[in-house]
């Protein structure tokens, strides 16, 4: 199948590598001025992988998209609305878009498929690809399980059939809302985990996992999703990579923040915490962990005080 | 309050240290010939802590128990039945027993409170103390959250009121069955996690968490408990300590087993896997992770083949 990958960062370049490896015809787009794109163009490599010569690199979105049947988008979540809007200049009818990002629109709290479909003027199909997996592992043949979800079970099945391999086993998702909220929210839990590492309280990550999943399950249920989705691959299943891994950008960001060390750029979970607090207000659901993370990040609260307060507040039932 | 602690291993000695610290009058029993007991008697210390002189050490169970209102038991789970039976020589009416172990009776699949109450001839009360927490952290003032559960909400509340502190925040459990199964089962997940470490597939621990909780939740629900208990502190909340920690005996055991390295003694999860497979049969619930762990341990199956098969089997829905 002809596919396009829009975005040439770590995950975009991996999707191109993977789609090529399992036999698809791949065109990958990057911005002409992007450092990642220029490096790939120069020697077809980055810190994670080597692209085969069969992957076509282009800085023209039109060229990448026009003949593709399935289009993967892996750009920064907060840039999706503007990017999607610019795609409307093309004929997109009946193309399938797979969003491969984990985030929520910070200003509105909207899910990425909502943002995307609000902008699209043609009748397109949209799905998401979420779940755990390190690029470094996949390129070393260490397999993992991931999830495809959409509102259309046939579409989900078609994408799973096109993408599954010995390296990635895809499960069918059945709750697009729950998987989008969950995939985004795990980055906030990752920041909280990093803060626990930063203050020397790593053993509270157990409580963080139990209370973090509970908090997100409550939100998803109130929003009309299935609370059990949070305990699936898209959220809980991504905790190894996010809460415990040295590679997790969000965890490292939280750790550096708590230690008052410099960090290169804001982690995606910073915007996601803002988005979740909007949903917390809209749906009347308390999100104490998100609140604590945002309060440390935005109001300069002391991370140790916030996190210890969170877990050590007066006794109560586990069910609340 | 006068309390007794029966067992002087890592966890028993910690309970004595902790109960003394928060103001209880503590008698701790150990077998006269036990290495742990002899070392504590000699210099009141072990690898984890120093006991205050206020903790009374004795090798007479009667002496420890007779004047105690609340009795904590922290011995090997498989020895509980015989030990409980021998307690019947004493007057125990209305005493409260708190079981501080994580296991199931291997031969029967029975929960430890079932085993205990089957043996008791006096009308006693029984509860459990489960959840995460490293002794090393608690003695360094790093707090954590744990769970007390029983079939009697007033009893649960009374124990929580007697034990809570700035170091341990206790939540009230509401599902004794779910918390007992969950606390025991986490050791099997710990062995599976160690096997993944041993074969170099640590990144599958994310999928292990998502699929492991799902498997145990299904069992608890079928047995009449609340499936959400598995996602609380007693099971999922203990994954940091069990699935990721260098200190976890079960994880280390699984890793050594997969690498064919020698190990000192069987981990508790070995017996628990057998017990869970009995429950699997009795209740007609498939437990593929327990099955795989037991098959590697008992039938000499290849851990890589078993575990990869487990996670990479043909595509299906997340809900199954």
From TrEMBL, chains A, B:
Keywords linked to the UniProt accession: Lipid biosynthesis, Lipid metabolism, NAD, NADP, Oxidoreductase, Phospholipid biosynthesis, Phospholipid metabolism
Active-site residues, as the UniProt record annotates them: 186 (proton acceptor)
Gene Ontology CC: one annotated term: cytosol
Reactions this protein catalyses: sn-glycerol 3-phosphate + NADP(+) = dihydroxyacetone phosphate + NADPH + H(+)
A single MF term (Gene Ontology): glycerol-3-phosphate dehydrogenase (NADP+) activity
SUPFAM superfamilies cross-referenced by the UniProt entry: 6-phosphogluconate dehydrogenase C-terminal domain-like, NAD(P)-binding Rossmann-fold domains
Domain Glycerol-3-phosphate dehydrogenase NAD-dependent C-terminal: 175-305
BP GO terms, sorted: carbohydrate metabolic process; glycerol-3-phosphate catabolic process; glycerophospholipid metabolic process; phospholipid biosynthetic process
Pfam families: NAD_Gly3P_dh_C, NAD_Gly3P_dh_N
The Glycerol-3-phosphate dehydrogenase NAD-dependent N-terminal domain, residue ranges: 2-154
This enzyme's EC code(s): 1.1.1.94
Signal peptide (UniProt feature, chain positions): none
Binding residues annotated for NAD(+), in chain numbering: 7-12, 265
Top-level lineage group: Bacteria
Keyword Cell wall biogenesis/degradation set for record: no
Family: Belongs to the NAD-dependent glycerol-3-phosphate dehydrogenase family.
Protein name: Glycerol-3-phosphate dehydrogenase
Origin organism lineage: Bacteria, Bacillati, Bacillota, Bacilli, Bacillales
